[in-house]
UniProtKB/TrEMBL annotation, chain A:
It is found in: Cell membrane. This is Iron ABC transporter permease. The lineage of its organism: Bacteria, Bacillati, Actinomycetota, Actinomycetes, Streptosporangiales. Keywords: Cell membrane, Membrane, Transmembrane, Transmembrane helix, Transport. SUPFAM superfamilies: ABC transporter involved in vitamin B12 uptake, BtuC. GO terms for molecular function: transmembrane transporter activity. The keyword Transport applies. GO terms for biological process: siderophore-iron import into cell. InterPro entries: ABC_BtuC-like, ABC_transptr_permease_BtuC. One of its GO terms (cellular component) is plasma membrane. It comes from Actinomadura rudentiformis. Gene3D superfamilies: ABC transporter involved in vitamin B12 uptake, BtuC. It comes from the Bacteria. The chain crosses the membrane at residues 21-43, 80-97, 109-130, 136-155, 167-187, 211-236, 256-285, 297-320, 327-344.
From TrEMBL, chain B:
The keyword ATP-binding does not apply. GO terms for cellular component: plasma membrane. GO terms for molecular function: transmembrane transporter activity. The lineage of its organism: Bacteria, Bacillati, Actinomycetota, Actinomycetes, Streptosporangiales. The chain crosses the membrane at residues 38-60, 94-115, 127-150, 157-175, 181-204, 232-251, 271-300, 312-333, 339-360. It is a multi-pass membrane protein. It is found in: Cell membrane. It comes from the Bacteria. This is Iron chelate uptake ABC transporter family permease subunit. Its main location: membrane. It comes from Actinomadura rudentiformis.
Amino acid sequence: MSTVMEKRPASGVAAVRRRRVTGVGLLVTVLVVAGAASLAVGARALTPGEVWRGLFAEPGSDQRLTEIRLIVQTVRVPRTVLAIVAGVALGIGGALIQGCTRNPIADTGLLGVNSGASVAVVSATSLFGLSNPFQYVWFAFLGAAVAGVVVFGLASIGRGAGNPLTLALAGQGVTVFLASMTTAIALSDKESLNAWRFWNAGSVAGVGFDVIWPVTAFIAAGLVLALTTLPAINLLNLGDDVARGLGVNVALSRTVGILAITLLAGAATAACGPIAFLGLMVAHVARYLTGPDYRWLVPYAGLLGAVVLLVCDIVGRVVVRPGELDAGVLVAILGAPFFAALVWRGKFKNA
Amino acid sequence: MNATNTTDTTDVADVADVKRSVAPGVRLGHVSFVWRPWLVFVTLLLASATFLVFCLSISVGDFPIELPRVIATILGQGERVDKFVIMDLRMPRALAGLIVGIALGVSGAITQSIARNPLASPDILGITGGASTVAVFMVTVSGGAAAAVADSVGVSAAALAGGLGTGLLVYFLAWRRGIDGFRLILIGISVSAVMEAITSWLLVTADIRDVARAQAWLVGSLDGRSWDEVRVALWCSLALLAVVAVVAFQFRPLHFGDEVAAGLGVRYSMVRAVMLLCAVLLAGVAVSAAGPVPFVALVAPQVAMRLARFPTPPLVASGLVGALLLIGADLVARTALPVTLPVGVVTAAIGGPFLVYLLVRANLR
């Protein structure tokens, strides 16, 4: 299945492992560098030394240092942390959903997560008159979670339990319905249309730690669940019958996988808007790099997701100064041509 | 393990396999086909239902006309008053619904067959994304060249050009010694993602009043169609459907894989390229007539497959389901709802749950 493996000499097992570990190390290094760059780059030009002092400064009388401290600690650190956390979550969610549905064009929006969150954002704005984006983060998360549960519940009724096709189509059906509700509400209420358009662009900026820590907790829970299902997903990709014959509880492992995806994608989407293309893209790139083994593919996808989202966020701060371009917009504009070029050269395989 | 068996491992397919093993073949001169009574029955039923809803959609309005009189007028009889109201005022809208529905349904069936993936639809071939981006650009950017173009050719025409341009771009980007379904959808998804990103960036930077207008256009609507617009769409779609009808006989074997199709004497690369081009153009026609009505192309083939108990999206039945969905949704939007909503909202609100209902019902059986 993997062209990568075929090119290797026959005694390749150790070499493959060494190469994969090196790859992880490389990605972590890139991520650390990007994280440092993310702290250093912004509307206000700061030297690395100033950033370093600002990171650890105590509130004091020095006005310039206080200013720097404010910029670094309340603007740049939160968005860097959120970009990494959400990028990991969306990358891993994207890889998992392709594994769970066995469909190479499944993305994290498939479970209704994005449309559920959208509906929640517009209804919260329209019903309760919320205007501050941080008040509707939790509505968005609730909407995403409810939509995910409904999709999975509908797909699990009767004999359909765990059938990937039923899941994908039920997800589409619910997504379709919720998206039309979003439009109906947004068209009749200008305030919610206004809230929705900003949320929909997808951004990691402006979210404080009071939101980031709970979101991170949900994502961490999703991460643990995801890691426990990886060996089973490898077997599920041999086909349900083979997996069952090898002793996998097919319905249980798919359920755990879907739950993990809902937690990961739901929390990330609530905090930074729908950036579903990120997950789809990095899942394919990760599969190209590692081959079809999900125990390697998923961590690669997570790291790649974090790197891509972080880099896009940094680029977004620089390109249209003094304004900013949303990270969600840039992920598509920068990532898609690169992705399409790889597709055209035939680098990707089916899930 | 790949997208192939996502379409083929359905329970529906099993049922159809059993049926096919006893289905007799029929040969009439150079044309041969398998006699499938249930498929024919469902198709005829859908056709009558579509005709009925079509007439109903014409009969309902501020000046109600009874169904028999509508049918008589369409068939060429009837009084002059009826003739004016029906043929001049209401026919364009109903006909636009019919054309858009059939075009989207057939286009979706072709796309899902070629991609061998039930999640594929012309939406991810870039037509919708490109048309939306251009339309939002036209609506939100005031002044300068964009406004001049918007005034002279209209938002719809510009959007059509954008949609077809993007669709053809995807088509040519995906071309590498022929069209491969998997490559096509991944390239289509990338291009659509770029278009969506640009659209959402335009929406974020625009004035909120323009955003509301753009959003209304993005949903798709049948309001205020005139004969001039509908006539163009009618002739284009008839020509395209004729091509599809001719090539369709060579299309079915593609489901067995390229090797088998080649063994059966099908020039699979050419057939796939022609059918796909037709799908892109049909979706373009639909966008020109009603804007980017979402989800019809995705839902209609899946619903048709399940109604007809057929293992692959049936072309005729998909088109009819699309038309039924669109005209029916337009009827509901005009009559049953307290607020006026664009037809696209209602097609999605009806089509999504109906697909879920069919899935759940199939699982419970």
